[in-house]
Amino acid sequence: MSKQMHLGVFVQATGHHVSGWRVPEAETGSENLALLQKIAAIAERGKFDLFFLADGLTSSLTAHPSTMVRFEPTTLLGAIAMSTRHIGLAATVSTTYSEPYQVARTFASLDHLSNGRAAWNVVTTSYARSAANFTRSTHPGHDNRYEIAEEFVDVCKGLWDSWDDGAIVADKASGTFALPNKMHQLNHKGQFFTVQGPLNASRPPQGHPIIIQAGSSIPGQNLAARTADIVFTAQGDLAEAQAFYASLKGRLVNFGRERNDLVVMPGVFPVIGRDETEVEENYQKLKELTDLPSAIGLLSERLGHDVTQFDLDGPLPADLAISDEIQSRGELLKALALRENMTVRELALHVGMARGHNVLKGTPSVIADHLQLWFESNAADGFNIMPAWFPGQFELFVDYVVPELQKRKLFRKEYEGATLRDILGLERPQNSFFPKL
């Protein structure tokens, strides 16, 4: 079989468009379990690899409607696990505002509950305002956050190896519940963490839950090349995406890994219609409903500057210094504005759609053409789909774009394998307490 594309659905329940929730047929509510279960069922019907939840640790009246209030993601995935059988379940958890033991235990539990479908999106938390919610007076700098994250992930992987496979025997005849020689104490003492172990959860079905990482800066790429199984990224230009893909894949050899050990999945924001008329109707619907102040707020957040100080109908200042908080996304948006000669207003409207991710507009065959081009041009191994609103735009993707990809032999017709690692074609890691074979 030829190489197959991977697909995830990036779930923001009120839609990724800043005003997607206002579309008359949209179902709304980030705390609407029935809607979230429906989205998961649609994704599983479409044979998607991944149901993915982002997260943040602050809120405000100017936040994106999907992020103003929402379920804690690992709790939600426990519920989604009960209504799905195959699809991978990914949640975002911060390494800056969590403890390794707690996170390792949470994802080991989720992996057991879902029979091997858990994935952890490792984030360092960009925004300094998060510190105020965690009894912190300061927020670590960009590179320091990645140093913390690297040690944090190492500790979690060590904790997942606390028990060998088959360590819990529960032998009634002998009275032996666990085999003593199959338990390992981590005794980690590092720069940022001291963790004794062992973990009070047996080894996860996947060995280690899947690790996802989304940083595009050099520290982010190095962390991903060393520790990640999937990388989410944001590019709007094919050459830019190819350069990122080559850079990231080229770093794997430095950590003793192969190119196929890491799956790269850029975000894609599709505006879909069954024909050109419906495409335009859906696109115009979004344009007419767009709340410009909200879009400007999102742009200001990602650049680290209040853009209302600039002429909205003029260009973004070429010498604008990008905030340390969300460095790679800010640089991406600045480059996009310069490359496309966009005004601040146009850039804000673009951010209101997809926050810097690639915006695609077209019929199912047009969307499939674009995905195929990027997939076959070494720009992506798959895509994280970001519907403008739910469930309608996502259902159009599953019911029309997916069959088009299947017809082109680019995407599976049935799930193969029991765990998310199997679906992704990734090896189960060996226990780190054993010598490498």
The number of helical segments is 14
Oligomer: single chain
- Class in CATH? Alpha Beta
List the domain count as a whole number. 1
CATH topology title: TIM Barrel
Trace the largest sheet across and list its strands: 1-2-3-4-9-10-11-13
Tertiary shape: globular
Question: Looking at this structure, what is the CATH superfamily?
Answer: Luciferase-like domain
Mean pLDDT reading: 92
Low-confidence sequence ranges: none
- What portion of residues is helical? 25-40%
Question: Roughly how many Å is the radius of gyration?
Answer: 22 Å
Model description:
Residues 21-351 form the Luciferase-like domain. InterPro entries: Diverse_substr_monoxygenases, Luciferase-like_dom, Luciferase-like_sf, NTA_MOA. Belongs to the NtaA/SnaA/DszA monooxygenase family. Keywords: Flavoprotein, FMN, Monooxygenase, Oxidoreductase. The chain is an alpha/beta fold and 437 residues long. The chain has a single domain (6-271, 357-424), classed as Luciferase-like domain (TIM Barrel). The protein has 14 helices and 13 strands. The strands form three sheets. An eight-stranded parallel beta barrel has the order 1-2-3-4-9-10-11-13, surrounded by six helices. A two-stranded antiparallel ribbon has the order 5-6. Strands 7-8 form a two-stranded antiparallel sheet. The radius of gyration is 22 Å and the shape is globular. The model has no long low-confidence stretch (mean pLDDT 92).
